[in-house]
Design brief:
With 203 residues, the chain is an all-alpha fold. 55% of the residues lie in helices and 0% in strands.
Length: 203
């Protein structure tokens, strides 16, 4: 596999790429759960209010669901998200810790593989493949996968890249998808990896 595009993007992107503001482990995990089908900047506006009211797992687990829904109302699917983060907080509070593997994390309420990978990569510094819509689109256009299925995409990426490349790849492709390789009108003329992209003449 030609990794030239990734190497070029890696050098052109900021050293640190973060879309969510929270860095505390529990607050970050909750933020990722809230970001599902919601723009990250909306989450970043809500979380200061959320965590000023319920600062940790124990307090969030005991939150009044109506009050929690009111805080999360600016986000999409706020009722289900309120239930999920309250249940997540209760389980983390019961355990006394946040699990450190994808297999354990996905057992938590509201946590899927994407959220688990986000936590592994951002908080634990592990090899993570964060398959969101931006990453999936760019990975497919670059020929790193031929699938639209998140599980298959993750498997393809893990098979082709080194463990220590995975998190950086996740973030660079994601940011490239947000900035340049858009879904409907990719900016191929200004793309730094156009000559390495097999989709260049197709999009």
């Amino acid at each position: 596999m030609d990794k030239s595009a990734f190497k070029i993007l890696d050098k052109s992107m900021p050293e640190d790429i973060n879309f969510l503001d929270e860095r505390d482990d529990f607050r970050f995990l909750v933020s990722v759960v809230l970001s599902a089908q919601t723009r990250d900047d909306y989450v970043n506006k809500v979380t200061p209010v959320l965590f000023s009211t319920w600062p940790d797992a124990a307090s969030l687990a005991g939150a009044d669901i109506t009050a929690l829904e009111e805080v999360l109302h600016p986000l999409g699917f706020y009722k289900s998200k309120a239930r999920n983060v309250k249940a997540l907080a209760a389980e983390v509070s019961r355990l006394g810790y946040i699990p450190g593997t994808i297999e354990e994390l996905v057992k938590l309420p509201g946590v899927g593989r994407k959220t688990a990978n986000c936590y592994i990569g951002h908080i634990l510094g592990g090899g993570a493949v964060i398959v969101d819509t931006h990453f999936a689109r760019v990975a497919k256009r670059l020929g790193y996968t031929d699938s639209d299925d998140p599980a298959k995409i993750e498997k393809d990426i893990r098979a082709s890249f080194d463990e220590d490349e995975l998190m950086r790849l996740s973030m660079t492709l994601n940011l490239h998808g947000r900035q340049t390789c858009h879904a409907r009108k990719p900016e191929c003329a200004s793309c730094p990896v156009a000559r390495h992209c097999p989709s260049f003449t197709q999009v």
